């Protein structure tokens, strides 16, 4: 069964051929999906990249309710990849991440629950030196 969080996580983990198959299943069920990448030692740049993409791609409109739901989805996913220690540059960590944004129902056939937005982050985090990083994964989702 397809669900918002599952689509977000699978999208961020899959390679292009697998992702096309996932999109073919997701779009007819009412999900909108976007995937890209971001890397930085500055958490503000990661948040800004995801927020900018969400606005540019039409995932949210410029109103408080939608921006707030997106912000908290990013924050929850970010909290997951930072293991509870929200911060990068100030503790000399860098991140190279893929991210996905998904908007739609929480689960297929659950339209009476309203629209939700999810953000998944996957990639590598560690000391800003090649070979000193490890994999990370985070997911956040909120109602709009």
UniProtKB/TrEMBL annotation:
Sorted UniProt keywords: Activator, RNA-binding, Transcription, Transcription regulation
UniProt cross-references to InterPro entries, sorted A to Z: Regulatory_HutP, Regulatory_HutP_sf
Pfam families documented for this protein: HutP (PF09021)
Keyword RNA-binding: yes
UniProt entry tagged with the keyword RNA-binding: yes
SUPFAM superfamilies reported in the protein's UniProt record: Hut operon positive regulatory protein HutP (SSF111064)
Record's subunit section: Homohexamer.
Function: Antiterminator that binds to cis-acting regulatory sequences on the mRNA in the presence of histidine, thereby suppressing transcription termination and activating the hut operon for histidine utilization.
Protein family: Belongs to the HutP family.
Protein name as catalogued: Hut operon positive regulatory protein
